Amino acid sequence: MDESHPTKTTEHLMRTRRNNTTALDDSRLPVRAKLVAAWTSFMFLYVYVDIIGFYLPGKIQDILVGVVFEFDITQSWALMVLTLMAIPILMVVLSAMLPARASRIANLVVASIQVPYSMFNALGESWTYYYWLAVLLEVILLVVILRLAWTWPRVTASPETTAGLDREPLTSQRHV
Fold first, then answer.
1. What is the mean pLDDT of residues 75-81?
2. Which H or E run includes 68?
3. Alpha carbons 148 and 146: distance in angstroms, whole number
4. Contact, 120 vs 84, CB < 8 A?
5. Does residue 85 contact residue 91 with C-beta atoms inside 8 Å?
6. 154: Cα separation from own chain's centroid
7. pLDDT of res. 25
8. Distance between CA atoms of 11 and 9, rounded to whole angstroms?
9. Which of 20, 100, 140, 145 has the fewest CB atoms within 10 Å, i.e. the most exposed one?
10. What does the mean pLDDT of the chain come to?
């Protein structure tokens, strides 16, 4: 058959284009990046649940008279809330910046403490479906954080790294 035939050439080009498609790069994301993403998602959810909560009937009136849930709005209350909010906020940075071992421990401890705290936030609320969905989503993210920290990949220690597993790798010295 003649290779210059228009149908054959078009068919050949179509088959070539289809076969030359490239797969997307699916490189593994480092555990630190996954933890930062999970804590960031947790904080967005945490904040937006509170912001959307302002639209619930009576919420703004309670705030204007100085009451949140059953608590009077005082400087002590504000300090307590800021402290409780700062912990997961700081976990975004600490997950990325602490040495691996310290980051793993911090993530395990803080996420474990945040689970009951998240559940407490839904107690006594009148919009139970809204708040329990929020708690469910928060707890799912916290379980993801716990799993990532618990299963943090380990590296085989070599003689160069046994001197300090959480420090920078040893480099060879130059002799002049």
1. 92
2. strand 67-68
3. 6
4. no
5. no
6. 20
7. 78
8. 5
9. 20
10. 83
The tokens describing 128, both together, are 């139970």
What is residue 16's DSSP assignment?
H
Query: What type of residue sits at position 67?
Result: V
Specify the amino acid at residue 14.
M
* DSSP annotation of 26: -
What are the residues whose beta carbons fall under 8 Å from the beta carbon of 156, sequence distance 6 or more?
A: none
Kindly state the DSSP code that residue 27 receives in the 8-state scheme: P
Q: Which tens digits make up the pLDDT trace of 7-60?
A: 656 565 555 555 557 788 778 899 999 999 999 999 999 899 989 988 988 889
How far, in Å, CA of 101 to CA of 1, rounded? 68
Segments making up each domain of the chain, as ranges: 28-149
pLDDT attached to residue 144: 97
Sign of CA pseudo-dihedral 151, 46, 137, 41? negative
What's the Cα-to-Cα distance from 79 to each of 32, 74, 76, 115, rounded to whole Å? 29, 9, 5, 21
> What does the alpha-carbon distance between residue 116 and residue 82 come to, in Å, rounded to a whole number?
18
Whether 106 shows a pLDDT value over 90: the answer reads: yes
Amino acid at 152: W
pLDDT attached to residue 160 = 63
Residue 11 has a pLDDT of: 60
